[in-house]
Records
---
Amino acid sequence: MNKLYESTRDKEVSKNASEAILQGLSEEGGLFVLRDLHTLHVDIESLIECDYMGIASKVLGLFLNDFTSEEVEQCVQDAYKNKFSEEEITPLVSLKDAHVLELFHGPTSAFKDVALSILPQFTKASLAKNEMGEDILILTATSGDTGKAALEGYKDVDRIKIIVFYPNGGVSKVQETQMISQEGMNTGVCAIDGNFDDAQNGVKQIFLDEEFREMLLEKNIKLSSDNSINIGRLIPQMDYYFYAYKSLVKKGAIKCGEKINFVVPTGNFGNILAGYYAKQIGLPVNKLVCGANDNNVLFDFLSTGTYNKNREFLKTISPSMDILISSNLERLLYYVSGCDNDYVKDLMKELNTSGKYDVTPEIFEKLKESFATGFATDLETKETIAKIYKEENYLMDPHTAVAYKVLLDNKDENHHSVVLSTASPYKFTNAVYEALHEATQEDELRLMELLHEETKVRIPDNLKGLEKKIVLHKDNIKKIDMRTYINEKAGELRSCTE
Ligand SMILES: *Cc1c(COP(=O)(O)O)cnc(C)c1O
């Protein structure tokens, strides 16, 4: 069988889907990609009568080259059946200026759930397929949303253990409470003194530490990663683009084949890149609109062709988009350069040494064919939350509001637009409450109640009664102690077969 995946930085690397999923990152630091993306094809008409899981099975089947269709189907069922609070998984709500695709009805109320519900199933199937003897230890650094979604996804999954590191004081109260009350014999959670970059760098260094990996291997443990560079996290994000399209056709809003826009609140460029993949394999997309917050490095890049991370890192009310190095952009550069591995490698080297790079004018033109962009300040974000609530009685979270503001600034009368909604408003209660009222010192969990009384919008079950949850994880360490911590914790955690 033809191995489908290579590295963005090395054409000679060759992997099956299951191998790429288990490995996460290629040896030389590149990301796994398929050169033949444009040859895959989804027949849109054939999806119109499918439900979410039906669409997911069809789309994922194209990318999981060494999975049988029964295996794909099983992964989809285990990931989504009765796991989301909405029957539709990702329902589409139509407002005056756009349709909103709600991606936050999973177990932790953020869009990361869609991919992190199924990645553990892929990992489990891949372990069996490759007859790997070792158990997997997933290491995750999180700025808040990925951590909880990953913990829920991997909780009690056979032969897999997971440790999540988060920056002490760097996540919201809701996010921290969600994580430190995590159940499951195979889950570990630990605060790190430092910010998110420290946590992420710490994890990356451990991945590259061969001696440490060898030591874990002797204990029958292999390290893996579940962050958004894993191809197994990217591909399930295509499914909801197709689902949104089918929903619009079913509603009679568009004819099958008509092009539409997607507006995406963007951080690590994973969500919007999945839209680009969907377009390459046949989804009728006019523009993918990249919405940024005040950390507008992507806005600048898509407006000028220069990527420059040398700027102040700002803390905003849309923290999951506070990021200056958008890892998944590397995959886009690979495709728009005509799959030129050496070119990508050079750009990434430049980014590493000088913190910036320029793309060629030809590549910049190509980017503009598929992408548009805009950004919203914190003030504009709050104004948008208040405006849409007042005018249309629809409550959105700050990340969604960033995208909605960008949509309103770039109205396109000729195409329908879908705004991707990435979190429940209750996940960022403080900011949402302040958008409707003024600044407050009230406890965030109490504000949730107040916001509910006022708006009558349902609080997701997983966010209810958080204040009563028992704290199960109290660890707090220095960054230099991560290796010792992992070593000890790996021995303590139990995978379900033990
Ligand atoms: C992660 C996240 C984003 C950004 O998504 P990327 O795939 O990193 O671009 C946006 N909104 C929320 C709520 C998130 O958790």
Note: The CA atoms of residues 99 and 418 lie 5 Å apart.
---
Amino acid sequence: MLFEKLGSKECGPSYEDDFHNMSSLDQEMQNFEAELFSPARLRKHIDIALLQIEKYLSDTSLRGLKLTPPQKLIDDVKSLMSMADNSSQHSEYEVNEQLLDKMIELYIQTGIQVHSTGYMGRQFSGVMPLAGVIDFISSIINQPSSFYEAAQLPNVVEHLMAEELNQFIGWQADTYAMVTTSGGSLANLTAILAARNDKYPLFWKQGINGLEGKRPAILVGADAHYSMARAAGIIGIGDEHIIRLPNNAQQQIDTNQIPTILSQAKQDGLDVFCLVASAGTTSVGAFDQLNEIADITEQHNIWLHVDAAHGGSLLVSDHLRQKLAGIDRVDSFTWDLHKTMFVPAMCTLLFYKNKVKSYSAFQQDASYVFEKKQDIYTAFDSAEQNFECTKRPLIMNFWMLWTLYGRRVFSKKLEYLCELTQQAFQLIQLQDDFTTLHKPECNILCFRYTPSNQDQCAFDDFQVAIRNQLKVDGKFFISKVEIHQESALRVVFMNHKIRISHVNLLLEEIRRIGQMLITTE
Ligand SMILES: *Cc1c(COP(=O)(O)O)cnc(C)c1O
């Protein structure tokens, strides 16, 4: 009856017209599916990408970063985009494969060449290629992992990997927690937010009024990563209430000075609730003495957070773990797997000694989450402990590598890189025209080129100029850093293919550029 009515002439298009339209739409969507989502097409595209990746991974040339002027890159991109407009495709959705190939090539070529022996610059790594394969799967099946029901395996794996890694920490089963987050900066922010809410339980609800006149302050090492100051700013502590602890000669926090600084802060009316130490400072890779620091923070009831973004990985090596002695006594620590565990960005772990407190970052009252009716599924959700709502299944790359290859692959790589850094340190010490600035503790090494024919007063600008010229030349990519307010050159060894002969080449290149700069001044 209804159809008859709709189909009558007075009521506009007939049902048959509708049916006809539906069927052509159906047809259209079928084509859409066949052209865009066909596994056979995908295989062709993967082949194109794989050929490029093979070429990239088997290129053994010494190269760092080919720095392209942005305008040149803008032109390149525009010309690729116009190629898409003009392409003569057989059908509406057909991919221009030549264009795809060119786009991938441009992407690869303009990046920092992290798989080359010339890359000694930063802390992101040449990843284990298999991790990229897993990442590809994650991208296609797309399981956002803050909730168990959306990402069952990643959530279970997170729990099991926390247990697996806890064998190097030593906490009692079921008493601690681990969350994955998008980066070390976010992990640091999350941790000190948890610390703040733990110390000032009214803050979450009442904001600064909940402080009841207290003036919260945090202590951080002189070389703390910039994300710490930023995090303190975000959570409302105020730049003036970040107290920098001086370093000792090893560029660690000088623990002897902490008690005096604490009592001075108290006299100034500050309430120190958190101390942030580093396990592997970004600048020189120094490891703070966690046991000594924990003695003090435990006594004063101060939350101890350790930024082990860089150095946390040393935990998996029997030879290197000692650098993190005392990690079992800290309240929280950050560990970037996307740095020294050789998986692609992002994957960061944030560990809490006390499982209950892992809920305090985003909850005014930790008990709230436990009163809520959890079932066996939602007990595995991490949404209440991490900032992200939609989150990559961050743990999957690492889990697969760890399971397939075992711990030894990671410890071997790390031990080699730390050994190489010691060799490089000794090599540089033997050069009359170079100066070392610290004894390296992991895979970061800072030094200066200090030839006698250069004016000492100009040494700072000189290091920066050398580094910039190196970058433009494109053979090596290294970084620069300020140590004791002096500019220095910095190498981070992330690539096991680097040999001491490459370091020798780097020194020669620095000499050549340095001398060229002196003569053209
Ligand atoms: C790299 C680093 C960070 C920042 O981590 P992201 O993952 O880059 O956000 C924080 N702290 C230290 C010590 C680092 O080395």
Note: The pocket of pyridoxal-5'-phosphate is lined by residues 123, 183-185, 225, 227, 278, 280, 282, 307, 309-310, 336, 348 (CB under 6 Å).
